[in-house]
Amino acid sequence: MRLFSPSLLNRIAPFSSLLISNQSLRSKTFLLRSNRVFGSDSSIRSESEKRANVMAVVEEASPSRRFWNEVKRKEANFALLSPFVVALASGGLETDVFKIYVQQDVYFLKAFARAYEMAEECADDDDDKTTISTLKNAVLDELKMHNSVLLGWGVDPAKETTVANPATTRYCDFLIATASGKLDSGKGPGKIATPFEMTKIAAYTVGAMTPCMRLYAHLGKELEIFLNQEENASHPYKKWIETYSAKSFEDSARQIEELLDKLSISLTGEELDVIGKLYQQAMKLEVDFFHAQRRIHSSVVPLAQYLNPKSKLILFSDFDLTCTTVDSSAILAEIAILTAQKADLADGGPGKSLGDARASWNDLSTLYTEEYEQCIETLLPSEEVSGFQYDKLYKGLKLLSEFERRANARVIDSGLLRGINVEDIKKAGERLILQDGCRSFFQNLVNLKQKRDLDIHVLSYCWCADLIRSVFSSVGCLDHLSIHSNEFSYEGSLSTGEILRNMESPVDKLEKFKSLISTVCSTTKSDHMSVYIGDSVGDLLCLLHADIGIVVGSSASLRKIGEKFGVSFVPLFPAVVNKQRQLDKDEVPVWRESSGVLYTVSSWFEIHAFLLGQ
């Protein structure tokens, strides 16, 4: 159960706009999580919201920042978790593969430098020309570095004839076409008559070049941590990492971003949209470039390819606020309130029904929040624990389970869920907005199911599984996964107010998880790998029992409880690099259940890149 605070209920948008408008959801950002937020979090969240609002204003004024933020969560993760970059970070990348990469990059950098020259010709401001020339010279220095690497391998760059692979060719052709003013399938603008048109082409070109600079700076910073580890004192790719993590490269990235912002000032909204599309296309081509660098040896990413083709992959996911941007209890509460409103209108209202319904939800929410905080304080150990203490954690979460059952009983006894039409629930599910990347992940997961042995399960506290079924039906995945949740009881098409209580607590989830794993073990002789994706305290036991437990987001209560009982939260990318390092040493990477280690991610795109690849 996930009841929400009265203030959150009061801030919820009218039901129709709540479900239809993504912007209204984003602007409200109430993240209905009172069952995982402590009292101290409210002030933290308030300050975080203030900082986020300030940053949003800054980013809106800066096209380069806005474009980067639009691709960072997706494309940047697909580059970071590519087999090539992971092996580069681990230090185990084969020299021959790196040599091919450098040769391809030399080919690309020549086109990059040529695009700078063409942009400089189009720019009509002397300062802009100087900036572009400076950036071009930095690329020429980068080419010199690459050439020195090739000479060290006995390859003379002047005599070497590099054949570009298809990914490199597509990227170079795109840059030169953009710098030539050829957009929309290669159609040029004809004769460029005015300085403004020339400047616009310069802006388009810079917009297509900026993603490369920002992505390399991002990768350099992400990989820099591996140079500081004792076992990597002599990292074979130290020079590469230092080059792109250096302040000088970050300065170049910021310089081209500032140039893009300056060139964008005089552009129309439509022209800015063109730059945004060029930026996204360039970033995708950059990601393709990394994925085109094929390794000789095995890679731990994507996991679906690393696993033995005959082994079974079992994926489990929570639903509320793991998959969704809004908690299902808020959706069902709003439907219940609207149902009361309809009853008022039918009786010639407005009468007491609507006000009573909203007041009752507020009372239930207030009581839930107060008792939840008391329950959390009760289950936390009074003294620091040594190491991972699973048994104590399980005992504490049993107390939480008893509390959740009492809270659900109060909702049922209130009768507030009576009279809801199942069609309203289904419509809500069809319009419910999922977390960025969640929809495409499940759609691609279904495609994977056609190629390997894969089971998909959704485990949820949601009061009404019909809502979940409607969501995944709209995604196109309903027939390919199993949903384990609570159910509404109906008379005809209207809810009776009763809930068939199948899953109410962390312990209930764990029992279902174990039952499903046990069924797999009893019906197949092949090995299996289990992955659980969740975001809250209610997922903690399943996360720990899965071979790989992935935590989405940054729930303060999950971390507080987990850390109090010795659970470690490790960012996914460094963990993947560590597993790759084991594989490079001919060791078998082990993802161990009940190890007390959970892996944290910021988005579904990161999960997608890790499990499924590009």
From TrEMBL:
CDD domains: TenA_C_AtTH2-like (cd19368). SUPFAM superfamilies: HAD-like, Heme oxygenase-like. One of its GO terms (cellular component) is cytosol. GO terms for biological process: thiamine metabolic process. It comes from the Eukaryota. Residues 83-181, 203-295 form the Thiaminase-2/PQQC domain. This is Thiaminase-2/PQQC domain-containing protein. It comes from Rhynchospora pubera.
